[in-house]
Amino acid sequence: MSVCTLRINERDVAVPTGTTLLEAARQASIPIPTLCFLEGLSAVAACRLCLVEVSGADGREEPRLLAACVTTATEGMRVQTHTPRLQEIRRTVVELLFTEGNHVCAICVANGHCELQNMAVEVGMDHSRLPYRFPDRRVDLSHAQFGLDHNRCILCTRCVRVCDEVEGAHVWDVGWRGEHCQIISGLGEPWGAVEACTHCGKCVDVCPTGALFHKADTNEEKHGHPERLQALVHARTHQEWSP
Amino acid sequence: MGDCLRLCTAASCRSRGALALLENSDRPVKQVGCLGPCSEGPLAAMGDQLLSLQPAENESLGPTLEAALAKSREISAEEPFLKLQRRLVLARCGVVDPGCIHDALSQGAYQQLQAVLAADDPSAVIETVRRSGLRGRGGAGYPTGLKWATVAAMPGAHKVVVCNADEGDPGAFMDRTLMEGDPHTLLEGMAIAAFAVGAQQGYIYVRAEYPLAIERLRTAIAAAETHGWLGTAISGSRISFAIELRVGAGAYVCGEETALIHSIEGRRGVPRPRPPYPAEHGVFGLPTLINNVETFGNIPALLHLGVEAYGEGTKVFSLTGHVQRSGVLEVPMGTPLRTIVETMSGGAPPGRSIKAVQTGGPSGGCVPASALDTPVDYDSLKALGTIMGSGGMVVLDDTTNMVDLAAFFIAFSREESCGKCIPCRSGTVQLEMLLRKLLERRGNAADLSQLESLCHTVADASLCGLGQSAPKPVLSTLRHFRSDYLELLQLAEVAR
Lengths: 243, 496
Prior knowledge:
The complex is a heterodimer of chains A (243) and B (496).
Chain A: E1 3-8, E2 11-16, H1 21-27, E3 51-55, E4 64-67, E5 78-80, H2 84-100, H3 115-122, E6 139-140, E7 146-149, H4 158-167, E8 172-175, E9 182-185, H5 202-206, E10 212-214, H6 226-238
Parallel strand pairs in A: 1-5
Antiparallel strand pairs in A: 1-2, 3-4, 3-5, 6-7, 7-10, 8-9
Chain B: E1 5-8, H1 11-15, H2 18-23, E2 29-32, E3 43-46, E4 49-52, H3 65-70, E5 73-75, H4 80-83, H5 101-106, H6 111-119, H7 122-132, H8 144-153, E6 160-165, H9 174-181, H10 183-197, E7 201-206, H11 211-226, E8 242-247, H12 257-264, E9 288-292, H13 293-310, E10 314-321, E11 327-332, H14 337-344, E12 354-359, E13 365-368, H15 378-383, E14 392-397, H16 402-416, H17 422-439, H18 445-461, H19 465-469, H20 472-480, H21 482-495
Helix pairs in contact in B: 6-10, 7-8, 7-10, 7-13, 9-10, 9-11, 10-13, 16-17, 17-18, 20-21
């Protein structure tokens, strides 16, 4: 296996060829924030939080902003993960996420265990500099066990990917476009009416916020379980069950 | 049919009643594509003579073609609008009947394809394109020869050539003009590209809003297949190349190449990060060459003339807005903007003056009147904070508020954002809210600095070209017309 050496925040890191910048940074214990990324699912580079400044790749010296989750490390790359420019982008992105939905932590099932909430703390968002939009969004409680509150959805599409790539049911997809985008079940039917749903709950396990939840959960009771997905993917990939 | 009357029945003249004239006529008329100065339409031509059939004010057209011709007005070939053009891509547009392959063949269509197939040297074709310095006419200006060479060098027996005909910028209709007026030039260009890079399958991704272009492309593809210029064993050679038409569903973002690929594959038209580039992993995972309509349209002319005579080439523009004469024109690359918007188009309406020229649509910016001597080429326009773009050119006179213009384009990008990445999905909404606040005279200095900083974030952080360039109309007007913004702040101060 060939190896390449790159420099992340003035630190030399050697990784196998084909490693993404996100993996390389995490191996070196350099944290890069992510929301749409989840180990075990394909990367879509949609949340833009993992943008890093990259120079020295392809002979280009001028730093370019690239999503660490989909960029492969190459020999001689120089990566900066926390410049003021990146920190400004991350804070603005989190503000944009908060202002486009209706995120009321105090009454949320995921309060205290929410990746979006944690991200706001991590990027130092103590308030939003942009105005809240208070969109009119629905809640789908048609499923027997689970609920979907569109007010809390950040369109990371983890549910879409886990259902398609791991469960193979493809219950979820994205409907409409732009600001009108929303997660849809089936062909835009109520979730409970979609026969393809296997009721496995993987979408609920991977949802970073309180958008997908167990109906039995009340305030602060929802915990995400991405490790269940990762154990399953590991078992399938390596034909070995070690939860 | 040499001196037969030619009547433009393409979209613009059609909307001015050209088809009704055709119905009320006994004389033989050849239906042709765009003749150029659309604002004078309906247009007809006889030999070298160009006739405007436009009725005088308060009069109506026709009702018969004879009556319209009796009152027609000749547009002299010496007029700058016609004289200063150099028609390479549009050479046969307005001359041939786009529905008749025999007419196109008699005017030289497919001769370059035949010559290329006879010479049987793909790398020589690529070398010619590379030496010509031709750059992509879709907006970004990537060197065409380099793109072709990259796809040609990809391993694998199956490759794809895609024509991006999803012309979506407001005020842009150059590609529509070629597809409606001379579709065989496009097909020939694509077939030559397919031969050069080794592709067997082609797609034209055309927007649904162009029904006439779709109809004429369908006719042209079928005729080219019948005559052996497309399909298997083209012109008796070993080369096969089939073209399929794919009609868009109204999403502007599908002009972005990765979204376009998804849409061709039958998936949701959303962009994905690059790399991998389409040259490596394109339609159905195959190495794919994607060029714009006008880029392919350049190829037959380039091969016909040779690199030296082709020179810097040309650019087709669709000129609209506050000008006396608007329409489609093809000018030599490097023509000063002033020549186009003042000399050729006659300048702003009487009593007004040109304030700016918007190029590149929602991804572009404004050139202020003070910089009109800038030559139109990729690098000069980029230095001014705009882009060449695909060729839409909107002239704005001194009655225009540039903040209003910026808000229009941001509203467009907001509407057309696919919603995949958050900076574009939500950032464009916030940008429009800020601009509306300024326009409604409720803004303050803090809003202006927030507008600027949010513009940079959206441009830096968005996933694809749509979001990355969406703030450009704002940044460009802030750069050249900051006084329009400051005036609104002052008015807001007075209102408070």
